[in-house]
Amino acid sequence: MFKIYNTFSKDVENFEPVSKDGLVRIYSCGMTVQDTPHIGHIRALVTVDILRRVLKLSGYSVFSVYNFTDIDDKLITKMAQSKIDYRIISQRNIDEFFEVFNSLNILNFDVYPRATGHIEEIIELISKLLEKGFAYRSGDDIYFSVSKFKGYGKLSGKRLDDLIEGKRVEVNQNKENPLDFVLWKGAKDNEPYWYSPFGKGRPGWHIECSAMSIKYLGESFDIHAGGQDLIFPHHENEIAQSECATGKPFAKYWVHNGMVNLKGEKMSKSLGNVFKAKELLKLYGPNVLRFFLYKTHYRKDIEFSTERVEEAKTAFKRLVPYLDENFEEDNVDDKIYKDFKDALEDDLNTPQALGIIFETINMINKKEKDESLLRNTLSKMYKDLGFIFEKKEKDDLTEQLVEILLKIRETMKKEKNYQMADTIREELKKRKIIINDLKDGVTWKIED
Q1: How far apart are CA 231 and CA 7, in angstroms?
Q2: 244 is in an annotated binding site
């Protein structure tokens, strides 16, 4: 049975879908597109990717949504600094996001909504909150009244009384309560705006995600995913405004991945201490980055350094020679694969799953079981984790070693030790190295 840690309950729970139709509905908080994607975005993507892969392995159908926040304060600041229209900035960064996304072999989401494409839904949600008395106007802005929602803090565990004005919450004299958050911002000079019943303006950040998730997944859905830095205030505010508007529970499970840190400090665009995703993919490739992230459980923070990624690269290289893209899906060692699947179904335990993979490699080297069966099992586990089968190419060391073996084989043939010569040929063939004996010599290639 699939189990997942729920931030809401602070416990690992047996997963039970909201709907009886077996379809699991997932909303993943996506990028704010004032800048290009970085390693933190890669971690969030890989987390929700393995989540969806494991749900499918467990027999569920999945419908998933990944949003883009393409209008907010940060994007407007970027527009003012660069003198480039916010729509151009957004599109450039979204284009780069998809380059990174496709390189990483992330499963496609079903919908990629943008906040600016859902102004109508946002206005409708704000209107409901005003009508029900959960929101109020202050000048040209509309705010959500936190004190009206008795469950505020139930996700983050924060208490209203403990959130002191000016310490953890931005001071704003226009608010009735310092914890109140903006739903609609009145238009300002040189800023984008839309027309609404409350006047010209633009949406606040939190209301955007509620409107988009409700439109595509319904008023109550299964899983809301994102980084741990979004728990408060973003996800806390989403719950408050959504449940007040609909009168129903919002998301049942809240899945949050840990942060990527650099020298103990959270990596983020606002702090400027980021490693760009595209640059890292050029340096290490998608498989090494995925492997690096899988070595740490998704809920734990990762300390990022090039040394640690290099270590992951070295470990990953041990795995590659044992893989075969054309493996037989149904021909696996049942016990090994069950242990692997059990690890993933136990709160996405990728470190344990990787451990099982390397135990299998050791079994191959020790010739403990049928090698063909173990290689099939390895390739199946590798594919299930979302890794890409890499085209095998000749490298200098491989070429030197094969040439040495071919010279030994030629000596064996001259000495009429054909059994040893054939053994060398067959052992190389198992490793996808194909020998061709020609009249004028021997050639070899690595089979795709």
Answers
A1: 9
A2: no
8 Å CB contact between 360 and 377: yes
Task: Specify the number of domains making up the chain.
Answer: 3
209 labeled part of a ligand binding site: yes
Looking at the fold, whether 403 and 379 belong to one and the same domain comes out as no
- For residue 276, being part of any structural domain is answered with no
Whether residue 359 is found in the same domain as residue 441: no
Q: Which residue segment(s) compose the domain that 431 sits in?
A: 396-446
Q: Which residues contact 183 (CB under 8 A, 6 or more apart)?
A: 126, 129, 135, 142, 143, 144, 203, 204, 206, 207, 241
For residues 143 and 175, the answer to whether their CB atoms sit within 8 Å is yes
Residue 29 is labelled as binding a ligand: yes
Select the more confidently predicted residue: 138 or 367. Answer: 138
Q: Is the pLDDT of residue 157 over 70?
A: yes
Does residue 351 lie in a domain region? yes
- Asked if residue 308 belongs to a domain, the reply is no
pTM over 0.70: yes
Alpha-carbon dihedral angle through residues 219, 222, 225, 231, given to the nearest 10 degrees: 70
